[in-house]
Structure formats: structure tokens, C-alpha cells
Amino acid sequence: ENEVPSELFYLAMIESGFVTHARSRAKAVGVWQFVKGTARNYRMDVNSVVDERRNWIKATEAAANYLKDLNNVFGSWYLALAAYNAGEYKIVRSIMKGKTRDFWSLAEGGLLPQETMDYVPKFLAAHIVGKNYKRLGFELNIEPKDEWAPWETVSVPSGVRLTDISKVTAVPLEVLQRWNRDLIKGLTPASDSGNVDIYVPKSEVAKFESAHDQV
User: What are the backbone dihedrals phi and psi of residue 23, each rounded to the nearest 5 degrees, phi first?
Assistant: First the structure.
């Protein structure tokens, strides 16, 4: 399995504070704060039943790919971060107006939104603290309820309620909801095959296997 660069999580820290249901004034949603258009560009479903911007795994992959694409476009991680915050078109206009691709020159020239001028330093600050938290006197204490166990996907029918899946498998409803926060109606989405994959901790997989016929 590919490891996600830790730098990406510093971005989540300043975007949402790791709050899955976070929503901005611009209607960006999730840990990585995607708007609908960008989410759909990166193959995330957003509709009345499912909002994959709330899906930790798919949204993290999308954020990594989006940042990589922005860096390829602008040739600068600073500008990639700025574009993640303000949108690529605003950064293109700033570059054209300032006739430079140097983030700091654009910031000093007042050619970027204030929020974007603050955004990159916030990321750098989070990065410095995150890499040196022990030396800076911070402690890392993760509550058991916030820990994420190894997981797998299991196949279930489309168009069924998580409450019913919980009943036939004896997997607690809270577990199904926590691991599938993108299912905003508590209902598995429609699919052409009639089945969809949902996430469960490995410790619960055996329950699905023993209740295969009922599921």
C-alpha cells in the first residue's frame, strides 16, 4: 500500500482540523475541503445519497493527485498550495499581472487574496511544528476513539440501509457509520452491478462472512 506523504496531513490540519463534516462558506466539504466541481473532476461522487468528499480514503487520494497536478502546472509547491486555496485561475491571473511565478513576490506585491497570503505560511508553520513537536514541548496523545484500525472493503447490495446491514451482520451501526461517512443518508448508493463496496475494520470482516447469505 502506498503511504501518503505526511506533508499532506499538515494541509488537512489547516484546511479542516481533520473534521470530516467540515463545511466552508464556499460550500467546500470534508477534511480536504473540496468544492463539488473539483471533487467530480477527481472522480468523487457527490449527490443526494453519497458525498465522497467525506470519504477519508478517496478524498485523500484526490487531494494528493490535485496537489501533484497543481505543482505540475505552476512548477512550484508554494504556488500549488496557493492555488489549492484560491483556485488555479486566480493564481494564473496573479502571475500574469505580476509577471512572476515567485509566490513571495506575488504576496509582497499584494497580488494574492489575504487568505492565500496567510495560507502558505500557515502550512509551513504546521509543517515545522509537526516535524519538531517533541522538541517544541508538544505531546501526541491519540484517544482510542480516534484511532483507525486496519480496514478492508466488503461487498453489500446497493440501495440498502446501514441499519439493516447492522442487523444481519451484528456489526454496530456506529462502526458502519464511522467508516462510511460518505453515505450521508445511511443508505448504500445505486450501482449498475447491484453491489457496492463499503469499508469496515478487519476485526468485523468475519461477521460479514458468516452472514453472507443474509447480506
Answer: -140, 130
What are the cell numbers at 121? 505560511
- pTM reported for the whole predicted model: 0.86
Long-range contacts of 48-51 (CB under 8 A, 24+ apart): 48/185, 49/183, 49/184, 49/185, 49/187, 49/189, 49/190, 50/182, 50/183, 50/184, 50/189, 51/182, 51/184
Mean pLDDT by 10 residues, the chain (215 residues): 63 86 87 94 95 92 94 95 95 97 96 96 92 89 77 95 96 95 95 94 94 88
Q: From the DSSP assignment, how many helices (H) and strands (E) are in the chain?
A: 10, 2
Q: In this structure, what C-alpha cell is assigned to residue 43?
A: 472522480
Map residue 197 onto helix, strand or coil. strand
Active site (catalytic) residues: 15
Give dist(CA 95, CA 90) in Å, integer.
9
Grid coordinates of 82: 496557493
